Amino acid sequence: MTDKNGLLTNAGKLMTDQHTVYNSRMFCTRWNGLEKGSIFDDALDDKEYDIYSIRSMRRNPVIADLFHRMKYMERRGSGLRKIVSETEKLPGYSEIYKPEFFSTATDFRVILKNVNYIMCGASVHDAAHDTAHDTSVISKQNLLLEFCADPKSRDEMQAYINVSSRSHFSKYYLKPLLSSGKLEMMFPYKPKSKNQKYSTVHTK
């Protein structure tokens, strides 16, 4: 997807609507999201799935079938699995370099990490981006803890810090705060309850 200078090739540009390349990783985003009915729709319910068990749904079965017969495409549904398996074969690979997939109703994003990237050699731009992101997350986590002094629903929490993606909110805010014991569920025995609310844990 990229040439020796780190720039996207024509093929790489065709695959993404927005592409951002840092020394440590590359972001690829499709703004129209995935086909309705895709298992990734369930990400809106905060579920996690094994990439190897996700079924494939073609947007245009006629064109897909034509390309398959002409040997212009690989077997159906192999894309996500191949991204993961090929990355695992790279020298220096470890679990922290595993590709990440995110999906919402409006976009689908893939993050590919550079297994050759050494943190001590990070560029000023990469370091600044990472620091800004971490600072933003911590700041919003603290805002949520103040906001949840009285129990709040998940929708109220997301609206308060202006985060629309349920999977993103879960990964960077809800799960870390719950696992750290700073936030608690009002109905811990019914975690998926539609009446679920969250409250800040007040330490004495």
Walk me through this protein's architecture.
With 204 residues, the chain is α+β, with helices and mostly antiparallel strands. The chain has 2 domains: 111 residues, no CATH class; 78 residues. Helices cover 34% and strands 13% of the residues. It has 6 helices and 6 strands. The strands form 2 sheets. A 4-stranded antiparallel beta sheet has the order 1-2-4-3, with no helix packed on it. A hairpin with a 4-residue loop joins strand 3 and strand 4. It is elongated and about 65 Å long. The N and C termini lie far apart (54 Å).
Characteristic key phrases:
single chain; elongated; two-stranded antiparallel ribbon; 204 residues; 6 helices; four-stranded antiparallel sheet; alpha+beta; 2 domains; 13% strand
What's the overall geometry?
Answer: elongated
* Total number of domains: 2
Count of DSSP strands: 6
Residue stretches low in confidence (pLDDT < 50, at least 5 long) are 13-18, 36-46
Structural class: alpha+beta
Q: Please, what is the average pLDDT?
A: 72
**SSE series:** HEEHHEEHHHEE
Number of helices: 6
Strand order of the largest sheet: 1-2-4-3
Give the helix/strand layout.
Blueprint: H1 10-15, E1 18-21, E2 25-30, H2 61-69, H3 79-88, E3 100-103, E4 108-113, H4 124-147, H5 154-160, H6 166-179, E5 183-185, E6 198-200
Antiparallel strand pairs: 1-2, 2-4, 3-4, 5-6
